[in-house]
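During the reporting period, we have paired protein sequences with C-alpha cells. One record among many follows, to show the layout:
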Amino acid sequence: MQPVLGTRAVRILEQAGLRFRDLDRNGVLDPYEDWRLTPARRADDLVGRMTLEEKAGVLMHGTARGAGGFGGMGPATRYDTAANRALIVGARVNSLITRLGGTPGGQATENNTLQELAESTRLGIPVTVSSDPRNHFQELLGASAGAGRFSQWPETLGFAALGDATLVRRFADVARQEYRAIGIHETLSPQADLATEPRWSRIAGTFGEDAALASRLVRAYVEGFQHGAMGVDSAGVLVVVKHWVGYGAQKNGWDSHNAYGRLASLSERGLAYHVIPFRGAFAAHVAGVMPTYSILENATLDGRPLEQVGAGFNRQLLTDLLRTREHFQGVILTDWAVTNDCSPLCRNGVPAGERPSFATVGMPWGVEDLPKRDRFVKALNAGVDQFGGTEDAAVLVDAVRAGAIPERRLDESVRRILAQKFQLGLFENPFVDPTTAERIVGNAGFQAEATRAQGRALVLLENRRKLLPLSRRMTRVFLHRIDPAVAARYGFTVVSDPAQADVAIVRADAPFETLHPGFVFGAMQHEGNLGFTDGNADYEAIKRASAVVPTIVTVYLDRPAILTAVRDRATALLANFGVSDAALFDVLTGRARAEGRLPFELPSSMSEVEAQRSDLPHDTAHPLYRFGYAKRY
C-alpha cells in the first residue's frame, strides 16, 4: 500500500503509479528509497552507499541542542538551529535526544526543523528523536522530563502497585500516540531494574522489587509503545529497556552516575534474578537495550569472575549473556557519556561551596585511564552498537583508519540502527503536523484515564477509626502541600489552624539526604536515610496536625520510606506514586478506590536496611509493611 510521503526539499519519484522520495537526488529509485523492500534489504543497500564518516555518525546518539542553559543540553522550548546543523549536517549524527518542553505544536514544529536539516544531507537519512520518560511526576535532568502538556500518569511504581498489565499497555499506547504526534520516535525507558536496594535513588522509575511482576509489566510496556508484540512498526516508538543488568543492586544505594557509586553488589544468584525482568522485554521483541554504568563488584557468570568494568565495556555481559544466552538481536545503546573523560573533579567532586558542572561529567567506569579511542573500541568489541551522549564520530573514524577496529564491525551496528529507522517509516515521512499534535497530546480523554490511574495506584496502609472515606460531616480541613482550591471544589472549607479543623490532610515526600553535593548527580539525587526525623518539614506538619485532629497522611514513595515515626501519628496513611490533588480527593471522599499494593517492602529501621542484601528482594528482617501489603475499605 502506498504510504503517505512527507518532504520539504527532495522531489518525489513516480514509478508504475507509485511514489517514492528521491533522498539522494540522483533521479533514480535506489533500493533504500523503495518502501516495498524489507527494512533489512534497504539497510544493506544504504550501508553500501555510505562513507566511513557517515557510518561513524550513525553510531553516535547525541543531544539536540536547545536554545537555553546547560550549553544547550538542558530544557528549552526552541532548538538552536545552527548548533543542530553542525551535528546533523557537519558531524552526520542522526540520532538525538530531545529535552524540549513547551506546547505540543511548538515541539512538533521544532522537531520538523531537525528533519529538514537531515533531508538536506547527502543521503537524506532522517533523525531518530529520542526522549527520557515524560508522562509522570518526577523531573530530573538526565533521568526524566517534566510532563508539561503530556498526559500525567503515576510513576511506573504505581503501575507495579496495581499489577495490571492491561493498564500498563494502555498507558504505553497513549504515550506512543503523544510521542509520535510531536515527532519523538524512541523512548529511553522502561527501567527493568529491580528495587532490591532500598536506598538507591532511581527506584521511582522501576516496577518494584519483584522480578516476576516486573517482567510481566515490562512486556506490556514494550508492546504498548512499539505498537504490537512483534516489534516496532511505522506507528510505534522504539523502546530501549534499561539498565542491563543489576543496576538496582547499587552498593550502599549510591548511584553509578557518580564516581563514588560506580559499584553494584551482586552474587551470581542475584545477577540471575535481575535478568528476569528483561525477559519480558525480549518476549515483546524490544528494539534496544541500554547497559548500566555500574561495575558489578566481585560478580561471576557461569562461575567465572566478571571483568571489573562498566557494563558498556563488558563483553561477558553484552555478548556472552545478552546476545548469546538471551538471544537479543536489537540495538545496544550505551548510557550517556561512558566514553567521556572523568577529570579529577569528576572523580572526587568539586571543592565545598562550589557548584558542580556538567562539563566535568563522564562515566567510563573501569576504563578511566584508557585513551578515548580505546574506550570506543573496547565498547564495540564488547557488543555495543551506539554511543549515548556523545557526538565524537571523528574518534571512530580515526580508530578504523588506524586499524584499531575493522570498518565491517561498524557496518554491523549501522545496519541494525538503520533497519529500525526503516521500520519506523521515517524514510517515507519524518514530518509531523503541529495542529494534530495540539489535538492529541494531553487531551482530556487521555488525562482522565491518567488521573484515574493515579488514584487507583494509591496504597492504603492504615485506616484507623474508619476515617476513610471521609464523612460528609467533616467539612473543615487543614492542608499541608495541597491546593486549597481543589479542596474547595470537593466541598471543604480550608482553615489555617489544625485545631479549627475536623480533619487534616498532609502530603509528604519520602525522606532523603544530600550527601554528595560536590557531584553533579549527587547534588540532585535522593540518598541516605529513609526515616522521618525531627526537623523534616513534612514530619513537623504531621506532628502539628496529628496532635489536635485526625490526620490523613499520603507519602510519595520515590524510595521505600521508613514510616515507623509516621504510622502512629496518622489516623489514615496512604502511599502514593505520583497523584494529583484531584485524584487524591477522589479517593479520600469515596468517589474512587485505592487499589494498589506495595511494590516493595517498607523497612522498619535503617539498621535493617543496612543489614539486608542489595541484590535480593523481600529480605529485611522485620519490615513495617511487607511486599504486596494493602488495606481496603
About this structure: The two ends are 54 Å apart (CA to CA). The chain has two domains: 12-440, 458-611. The mean pLDDT is 97. The chain is about 35% helix and 10% strand.
